Amino acid sequence: MKIAIIGAKNFDSLEFHIKDELIHQGHQVQIFDYKQNFSRKVDYGLILISERYEKKLNIKLLERIVTYKPDLVIGVYKHIHPLVVKGVREKGIKIIHINPDQLTTLRNQQIFVEPYDAYFTKDPYMLNFMKSNIGLNVFQYQEAFNPRFHKKVEGGPLLEEEVNIDVLCFGTLYPYRNRMLKLLKEEGVKIKLFGRKAKYFDPILESDFLGKGVYGAEKAKFLNGSKIVFNNFHYAEVESVNNKFFEINGCGAFQICDYKPILNQLLPFDPKQVSFSNINEANALIKYYLNKPEKRVEIRDIIHDHFLENYTYKNMLNYILSNI
Length: 324
Fold this sequence. Notes:
Elements: E1 2-6, H1 14-24, E2 28-32, H2 44-49, H3 51-68, E3 72-75, H4 82-90, E4 94-99, E5 118-121, H5 124-133, E6 138-140, H6 156-163, E7 167-173, H7 175-186, E8 191-197, H8 216-225, E9 228-231, H9 243-250, E10 255-258, H10 263-266, E11 275-276, H11 279-290, H12 293-310, H13 313-322
Pfam families: Glyco_trans_1_2
Domain Spore protein YkvP/CgeB glycosyl transferase-like: 177-321
InterPro entries: YkvP/CgeB_Glyco_trans-like
C-alpha cells in the first residue's frame, strides 16, 4: 500500500516511527511536512493568526499529497486545514487521523470539522466526547514503542554506575513539571533532566539540567542506566498516559508515573506499585525503590516483556489498519 503521513519529519517522533513500521511491513511511505512546501522557513506563529497564510500552506500541501497518489493518508498534525481532508476525500483517497496528544493541543478545533474516514484517540474521555456528543467515527488506540530504536540496554549495576543518575526526567520542562521536580529536590531526591526548557524555567533546577534533549540509542542508554525514570504526565491527560510511558517501559527501564485508572489495563500487575496520586506518594515511592535494586530489576523485566508483546508500533498499526 502507498501511504502518505501528514506531520513533522523529526527523528524519534510519532511520524518517524509510524513510517519506520509501515516500511518494515512492506508499504511505501512518505511524510509530508509544511516545512517542505516553501524554500524559506515556515512561520508557525503566522499560521495561528493569518488565515490566508494557513490556506496557502495547506493548498500546497494538498497538491503534493494528491500528486503522490497514495492509497491512504494518515494525519498526525492537529492543525491540518479542513480543505486538505476534503480535497483528499474528493479524490477517493481514504484519510484518517491519529491524535497522540491531550486535549489542550487541539488549537482551533480543526479536527472536529475535518471529515476524516476515521479518528483515533488515546484518551477514553476524548473518545466518549467525540463519539457520543459529536458523532464521529472514532476509536481508542494505545500508543507504542519501537523496539528497533527503544532497545533494552543490558549492563545492570555497571551501567547504573556509568550513567550515575538516581532519578531521570526528560521531555519539555513545563512549569508544572518543574514545580513537582523542585518539590522532590527539596526532599533530597537527586534529579537529572534532559529536554527543552519551556518558559519560566525554575533556577533551582539549573544545576540538574543536562543541557539537551535525548533521543534514539542515547535515550535508551540513559533510561536503562538510571535507577528510576520519573514520568509526571501533563495535567490535561484526563484519562490517558503519554507516549513516554510506552517508550520507557518498552526499552526496559524502571518507571514511576502518575496514577491513572487506565494503568490497570496497561500494566500486568497492580499499578499502585509504580504510580503515585500525589507528590508525597511520589517521594515515598522514589525513596523506597532507590533502596530496592533487586525489586526494580524484577518489575522492569516483567513490564518490558509485557510491552514487547503488546505495545509495539506493529501492534498499534495492525489495530489501526484493521479498523479502516
